[in-house]
Amino acid sequence: MPGDLLECFHSFKTRNAVATPNYGYEKRQKELAKKQKKEEKLKAKAERKRTGQGGELPDGAEAQEPDSEEPTGGPAAP
Questions:
Q1: DSSP 14-74
Q2: Distance from first CA to last CA of the chain, Å, rounded?
Q3: 70 near 64, Cβ under 8 Å?
Q4: pTM for the model
Q5: Each residue's pLDDT tens digit, 24-68
Q6: Residue 41 Cα to chain centre, angstroms
Q7: Rounded CA gap, 66 and 6, in Å?
């Protein structure tokens, strides 16, 4: 009889088991993604440096040329 009770408890426990989140796995995946992104940025930076290209502007942005006239924010030098 005591074996039946234990068997009943065990089957109850396994039937109602709920999956728990594996936070360690999620954290590791996040760290790996972060590391990969960092490596890609460093690789792109090294490539730009090697080819001599300056920083690229985002789509739709235009480079502004400095004004050859009076600088903004102050009076003209005599």
A1: HHT------HHHHHHHHHHHHHHHHHHHHHHHHHHHHHT--PPPPTT--PPPPPSSSPTTS
A2: 107
A3: no
A4: 0.43
A5: 999 999 999 999 999 999 999 999 999 887 655 555 555 555 555
A6: 11
A7: 83
